[in-house]
Write a structure and sequence with these properties.
By secondary structure, this protein is α/β, with parallel strands linked by helices. The chain has ten helices and twelve strands. The radius of gyration is 21 Å and the shape is globular.
Length: about 300
């Protein structure tokens, strides 16, 4: 034992004698606690989704017995999965299976689509995937929408899909893709699909709008699909040549950090997306990935 190790050991022993073993409980917990961000790469969208959740501590960390869970993917466009306009159906299916396997009473998948909903649900492959996994697909209609006080800095009130806010847990499941108006659409912008009304008005101040919505919904878990990403002509694309295969899923408890990592897949830094800095200032998450515990894995 060298002198430095001897001094370190003596100091630790002294603290243990003075304060007892609980003095180190917090330190030990921090070393064994799950990461804030899990990035998994692999051939199967379902397998990498399940591995990412496992790295975060498992779905049982988030879901309680009998919970009503809403899974909120992007199903906005009448596009097949290879166009990367909607969340990969295998990612959604894996999450439904995990949620129900953790003891949830319901795993509900819902999105207020841009194109006609019945076409989007079918052509995206998500409706069939959810059915196979034992989940429930719901369509947004007037009976499911209610104007609510958001108390945001820009959005004071708006029409909100009630199934989302009345759930025990919301899992935000965006796809990473290019957007012609705001460069990228990631987790924060995915909340537009949990709203109704004249959503085109959001684009008057989109960065402020998505931050207000993020602060309102406060997801405990975000699972971002970057298996195949849309790199141009977003948000709906239309050609396979507009996409790139990244075979990655990013899951995390820090929704801002998830978006920061996703933006890096496009070579875009957090300072280039104004809403990320706004979200950090509002205490919604971290933009410096160096301050986030991140675990990567390839399977």
């Amino acid at each position: 034992m060298n002198r430095r190790d001897f001094i370190r050991g003596a100091a630790a022993a002294g603290l243990a004698l003075r304060f007892g073993p609980r003095a180190f409980a917090g330190q030990a917990a921090s070393l064994t606690s799950p990461p804030a961000l899990a990035v998994v790469e692999g051939e199967s969208p379902a397998a990498i989704t399940k591995e990412a959740i496992a790295l975060l501590g498992g779905m049982g960390r988030f879901v309680g017995k009998g919970d009503r869970v809403v899974i909120k993917p992007n199903i906005g466009w009448d596009r097949t999965p290879d166009m990367a306009a909607c969340t990969n159906p295998e990612v959604v299916k894996a999450l439904v299976e995990l949620v129900l396997g953790a003891g949830a009473k319901k795993a509900i998948v819902i999105d207020n689509t841009t194109n006609q909903a019945k076409r989007c649900y079918v052509r995206s492959g998500i409706q069939e995937a959810v059915k196979q996994a034992g989940g429930d697909m719901l369509f947004v209609d007037d009976y499911r929408v209610k104007k609510m006080a958001l108390k945001g800095e820009w959005l004071k009130e708006w029409e909100i899909v009630q199934d989302v806010v009345e759930s025990d847990l919301i899992i935000n499941v965006p796809i990473a893709k290019h957007h012609s108006l705001c460069r990228l659409t990631l987790g924060a912008k995915n909340w537009l699909g949990a709203t109704a009304g004249a959503r085109n008005q959001f684009h008057q101040s989109l960065d402020k709008a998505v931050v207000d919505l993020s602060a309102f919904f406060k997801p405990r878990l975000t699972v971002l699909d970057a298996y195949r990403i849309l790199v141009r002509n977003g948000p709906q694309g239309g050609r396979i040549s507009d996409t790139e295969l990244r075979k990655t899923v990013v899951a995390g408890t820090d929704p801002v950090a998830v978006d920061v990592f996703a933006a890096s897949l496009f070579g875009i830094g957090p300072n280039e997306l104004p809403y990320l800095g706004m979200a950090r200032e509002r205490g919604l998450g971290q933009t410096d990935l160096g301050k986030v515990r991140l675990e990567k894995r390839k399977i």
